[in-house]
Specification:
alpha+beta, 6-stranded antiparallel β-sheet
């Protein structure tokens, strides 16, 4: 299974506009957006940055907990410039751990039906992350 196929499955599972697979590198200090599908894939895929510059992934990697964003305009866990530029109305990210190591995150931006992500999607994505964790580099 490739990271692109994981992103495609995330997109389908959540009815997401954009889905992203992020890999944590250098003990979680760097984040690499290894795969992305959907509306903003070409903007996101392949980017690499210090984790603290990636607010939503940083939040997830630091807390090792899911982050559900329903009001990006006022939520400090998401970069306001990117939320505005990409038209993000809702976002969801969950950590991916393998053998007790934090290896990355799965992220979804906007639902295709215009609804907000909910705790139901958090649970679904968290469960999916557990099933694909072994595919991530450690």
């Amino acid at each position: 299974m490739t990271f692109i196929s994981i992103a495609e499955q995330v997109q389908q599972l959540l009815n997401a506009e954009t889905a992203v697979v992020a890999i944590a590198e250098h003990a979680g200090q760097m984040i690499v957006y290894s795969a992305a599908v959907g509306k903003h894939a070409s903007f996101i895929q392949g980017k690499r940055s210090p984790t603290h510059h990636s607010c939503l992934c940083f939040t997830v990697l630091e807390s090792v907990e899911a982050a559900l964003v329903c009001h990006p305009q006022t939520d400090v866990r998401i970069r306001q410039d990117l939320a505005e530029q990409l038209g993000i109305a809702t976002a969801l990210a969950v950590p991916v751990t393998h053998n007790d190591l934090l290896v990355g995150a799965l992220m979804a931006l906007n639902r295709l039906d215009g609804q907000l992500f909910t705790p139901v999607e958090v649970q679904a994505l968290t469960g999916y992350a557990e099933t694909v964790a072994e595919k991530f580099p450690t």
